[in-house]
Amino acid sequence: MTMKRRSVTIQDVAQAAGVSVSTVSRVLNAKVDVASDTQERILAVIDELGYTSNLAARSMRSRKKNLIGLVVPDIGFPYSIEIMKGVNRAIAESTFDLLVYTTGDIHKNGTALHEQHYVSLLNNSITDGLIIVASAAADFITDAPIVSVDPHVVNPNYPSVQGTNYQGALDAMNYLLSLGHRRIGFICGRPEIGSAIRRLEGYQAALKNAGMDLDETLITLGDFSAKGGYKYATQLLTLDNPPTAIFAANDQSAIGVYQAADELGVQIPNELSVVGFDNISEAKYLGLTTVDQFLADMGHIAILMLIKLINNEPLEEQIHKMPTKLVERSSCQTLTGTV
Amino acid sequence: MTMKRRSVTIQDVAQAAGVSVSTVSRVLNAKVDVASDTQERILAVIDELGYTSNLAARSMRSRKKNLIGLVVPDIGFPYSIEIMKGVNRAIAESTFDLLVYTTGDIHKNGTALHEQHYVSLLNNSITDGLIIVASAAADFITDAPIVSVDPHVVNPNYPSVQGTNYQGALDAMNYLLSLGHRRIGFICGRPEIGSAIRRLEGYQAALKNAGMDLDETLITLGDFSAKGGYKYATQLLTLDNPPTAIFAANDQSAIGVYQAADELGVQIPNELSVVGFDNISEAKYLGLTTVDQFLADMGHIAILMLIKLINNEPLEEQIHKMPTKLVERSSCQTLTGTV
DNA sequence: TTGAAAGCGCTAACAG
DNA sequence: CTGTTAGCGCTTTCAA
């Protein structure tokens, strides 16, 4: 590790090259009005001294930072990972660098405050713009643009990319109905999150469309966790008249369902069909890639939108509808976005 | 979204509170020598104006930035995620904020350059120190301390936290041997990475210790990917005299083994035992948590080491040995670290 | 084509 | 306890 006590500054480079700092700065910023031999000499010195421009100083002085920030909730969720992948891909194709901040455990309180803290910290100083994933906070203080991905509550004041949760739930339910199921259980997500509610509404609408009655005992609480899924699946499967299929609000819940079924000796998929929304873990385990792609695309779209905002280009409203694909014991996810 | 054209500065706060900037600065940095009524007034103004300190300006002026950087390879790997979790946990218990940078696809070239770019960019400006996970680069130019987690090649010039790959492989093999297996296949990791080699050495040593001959046809190439695992498992399982057990170099490879076995109609674990190093995906799928913990602890330890370095405290050499736990079809991971 | 000089927002002496 | 002042490293006028 080459560890110097004081880093080499633009001053050092200027002195070594026998020019002024402003000339070095011009070279660094690829300005054209520099004599080519001067330029070469400076570049050589930069290389020799191992100079890197100081991010802080640069950010402070100039408006463009070439840096985009991504604020994601608990990275333990495959959901976050997949979005990050799409973001990474889009960043790689751009001229921006990416910094990621995680707000920690999504189930803990104070997430909204954490988010706001980071937004202020970053967007008022070193980043040109920010993507916020699954934000709990509804409002932010910021100078630079923000694009929100799957916010808990949609705020029409700023652009967002959202999964088509309602349609996805309809698709999943229609799939189960087409298999002949008439008693389908539903394990809900965290009720304060809009997407969980829209999935529930999709569940209810599908039953209604099929002309079936709603059995309230088949709808349970839930919290997007495997533990919750296990608890509520056990509840459903030990009913006097248990469901023949379960639609879980997300992949973690679905894992809990598998565990509960296993423990109770219920065979999947022979005795019980299971569909989980966002069923990433399983898809990955089974070597499927379709589901991941939806989320990655959300991240990708969000970055493209953000870059347009940063460049002051207009956003055209646009529906980005992903094809739906269902696999046994797995699920579907569709999304819309404005680019 | 509250979006102002120019952010409120410490100047604005000072003016509004009728004090000087330095007094505001003192309050911001929790200095004690400020009259409590002055402090209250300033805090009220800060709150009212929605002031947030400019990260760039602060970083530039003061040595302490309260920010730690984490550079991880491809976030698609559960390995990276688990380490990030441990890091997050340690950060939450500290006074530091965390910023993450990912170098993208681990299999792509140029990773080392990417790493060096970010180390210079961050560590010479806005971070107090950096954790680098699975670094491909061996050397860095940096002002602030670095702690390396599982570097490809260990550089004795700077502190590192490393998994006990050799011992872990021994444990995994002894487990398979204790099950009575005498023909055990090995699917290697990327050979340019030190940990892959140490796992191979553990495999070989275990056989030697058991007084068994080494059958070269049972050792295949590999690349830490499911695709590679599938390919080489197929190769092993279609041998004239196929192995009764396979030890895969990581969890991705193991997934490939399951796929290959499934396709060839080989029953696991009845006809074939499989152990995968770092078997995170499966452990998670099966609801196990032990394996994750090892990696998270590596991240945790790394942060504790880094904070000591930042505070100029000495590092004591210390072996942190995790208990070994083996589960059928899954694996073990132990680690050591200096804190 | 280049250099001198003015700050960006902030912290840290140094005085009072 | 508080204000004045001097920069941190960089970009950007404005002159030369």
Structural summary, described in words:
Two copies of one chain form a homodimer. Chain A is an alpha/beta fold. The first copy, chain A, has helices at residues 10-17, 21-28, 36-49, 55-61, 78-92, 111-123, 165-178, 194-209, 226-237, 251-264, 280-285, 290-310; strands at 2-3, 67-72, 97-102, 129-133, 141-142, 146-149, 160-163, 184-187, 219-220, 245-248, 273-276, 335-337. Chain A has a six-stranded mixed β-sheet with strand order 3-2-4-6-7-12, sandwiched between helices. A four-stranded parallel β-sheet of chain A has the order 9-8-10-11, with helices on both faces. In chain A, strand 2, helix 5 and strand 3 form a beta-alpha-beta unit. In chain A, helix 1 packs across helix 3. The longest helix of chain A has 21 residues, at 290-310. Chains A and B meet through strand 1, helix 4, helix 5, strand 3 and helix 6 of A and strand 1, helix 4, helix 5, strand 3 and helix 6 of B. The structure holds a DNA duplex (16 and 16 nucleotides).
Summarize the structure.
With 339 residues, the first copy, chain A, is an alpha/beta fold.
